[in-house]
Write a structure and sequence with these properties.
137 residues; 2 domains; transmembrane; cell membrane; mainly alpha; LrgA/CidA; membrane; transmembrane helix; extended
């Protein structure tokens, strides 16, 4: 498990270094997460067909990842504390923040509706799809 944690910290460090050196507007840990995902996908694509797919993923990294995901709710506590500490800034800019949240939500809904309309244009309407009693397969 320590080697898996070291892998995660190493990718976070590389992401933070890239963010600092290249002055990217994306947080370093997010860059590190994408680099880790890219490295795992690249390693998976290099596996021959006769090898099992599990050989690309170490059990320790999988176990650590599952443990961190199980504690994900706890990881939002620092973000909540950060919001509370910045309350004067949030209150001073309340109207622009509310307009941005409302506008982005509305825009997201409209784009989703447009994409769904275009994606299902050639399909039968839901009323004409036979009911299988909830059975998917």
């Amino acid at each position: 498990m320590p080697e898996a944690f070291l892998i995660l910290i190493l990718f976070q460090l590389v992401g933070s270094a890239l963010q600092t050196v290249l002055h990217l507007p994306v947080p370093g840990p997010v860059i590190g997460m994408f680099l880790l995902a890219a490295a795992l996908l690249w390693k998976r694509s290099r596996i021959r067909a006769d090898k099992p797919a599990s050989s690309f993923d170490t059990p320790a990294l999988s176990s650590l990842s599952r443990s961190l995901i199980a504690c994900l709710g706890l990881l939002f506590v620092p973000a909540g504390v950060g919001l509370v500490t910045q309350m004067p800034v949030l209150l001073a800019n309340g109207l622009p923040i509310a307009v941005a949240l409302f506008g982005s939500t509305l825009l997201g809904l409209m784009v989703t509706a447009f994409v769904m309309h275009r994606a299902t244009r050639d399909r039968p309407s839901p009323e004409r799809i036979p009911d299988t009693g909830g059975q998917v397969l």
